[in-house]
Amino acid sequence: MHGNDATALLGMTDIVKRFPGVVALGGVDLDVRAGEVHCLLGQNGAGKSTLIKVLAGVHQPDEGSITWEGREVSFAHPQAAMDLGIATIYQELDLVEGLTVAENVFLGHERSRLGFSQRRSTARAASALLERLGHGEIDPGTEVGDLSAAGQQIVSMARALSHDARLIVMDEPSAVLDAGEVQRLFHVIRELTAQGVAVVYISHRLEEIRAVGDRVTVLKDGRTVATGLSAKETPTSEVIRLMTGRAIEYVFPPRRKPPTGEPLLRVENLTRRGEFTDISFDVRPGEVLGVAGLVGAGRSEVVETVFGARRADSGTVSVDGRPVRGGSVAAAVAAGIGLCPEERKSQALLLGESVATNVSMASLARFARGGFVDHRAERAAALEQTTGLDVRPAGVDREMRTLSGGNQQKVVLARWLLRGCRVLLLDEPTRGVDVGARSEIYALVRRLAEDGVAVVVVSSEIEEVLGLSDRVLVVADGAVLHESPADQLDEHRVLDIIMRGDAA
């Protein structure tokens, strides 16, 4: 089908949603046809998350109308949207780890007879759904927590299909997948659309939109600025112009002459059995070291071990020639090491607390007065850092969860700037960050390096590693395969090293 049928399955017209002090949606139009992949694009804060929550029945619109097969509908609660055939797979999957695959697939609408659950028929039904998704190898009796991120995503899709979903919303589905898993995801999406299921696909990766999308709607500042664009034919420059309101490229700050002198951070023969072996590298003050590799190569595990969040089986980490006690975050922070982790929402931020609390949490001793925290000084220091980083909206009393992904990332950076860290480990620094905020974060990383900070950048986007770094390590299967200046590598060369498993 792929959108050839001009009749809209879903229509959203002039959708307005207000929250106290902010208009999240100021007039959004979206129509989705049966059997198409309709891509939703926009910077963080453009209104994408609010829109899909309106579609899922989590929020009710203040103005506007929603139609389903031409008939006006409203969703008083999420179950009403599910009953109609609309399923949403959020970026943070809402699976229950202690339950089996089958139990997760039918969670909330368990198969039972005379009040007793029917485990055998539930398992059979789950198997049929997994088979339909091309993943019949997943055992419905497996605990879902034992599956890979890609496997868990397939279970979420099976759950959506268990509700007889006719429209599935996928929010950043590729964020935790490697290149091969992304291709399998695209295959599953094509199978679904061939069966007439519509997909609303949200991603910051424009190359994915080209590969899997049919049409595109672009949001900016809570409004639709373009809809019905061809996913494959609309130039990237035009998409970015619509998203940002200005022409912008993935511009990396100019490189300076690589720093010389003694390393500030030195990692020697670091090993964690089953994750990585004999990892050695060093970083000088003012240098950006990039770590390139596919998901699962052991990159995140290495930086978490350097930060003390994991304990190495052998090897050493030293800062300025002084060993850092392994397996201790406190020791790493005291030595001047900071980490912006891959999963900032779950690993770095207190979403229910204020921006000020999140900025100051690594520097609380600085604000302690006689056993009490000087909140005025804490707020003033947080405000200085967030203003310098242009965190939007301004103000440090705002609850952390109300900020967009790019601004949340700036708050994590502000924490380590306030702490005055000398070594900064950045794991996927622009994941879930829009194209405008990316450029700001790139400029900030370069500025930190110019101030003498030793920076390590881990990213799944090879272009990002090469554009931002002075020197690059290529990692695969928990080992360093290659090291060279960034300007001596290109994306094809890095992928060739990874695929061949050596630096030949």
Account of the 3D structure:
The chain has 504 residues and is of the alpha/beta class. The protein is 33% helix and 26% strand. The chain is built from 17 helices and 24 strands. The strands form six sheets. The chain has a six-stranded mixed beta sheet, with helices on both faces. A six-stranded mixed beta sheet has the order 18-21-22-15-23-24, sandwiched between helices. It has a four-stranded antiparallel beta sheet with strand order 2-1-4-5, with helices on one face. A hairpin with a 2-residue loop joins strand 11 (215-220) and strand 12 (223-230). The protein is globular and about 70 Å long. The two termini are 46 Å apart. Mean pLDDT is 87; it is low at 1-5.
Features:
504 residues; alpha/beta; 6-stranded mixed β-sheet; disordered N terminus
The helicity comes to 25-40%
Structure annotation, total helices: 17
Overall pLDDT level: 87
Number-wise, the strands total 24
Multimeric state of these chains? single chain
Label the structural class.
alpha/beta
Radius of gyration: 24 Å
**Binned strand content:** 25-35%
Q: Characterize the main sheet.
A: 6 strands, mixed
Overall 3D shape: globular
Strand order of the largest sheet: 6-9-10-3-11-12
Distance between the termini: 46 Å
Low-confidence stretches: 1-5
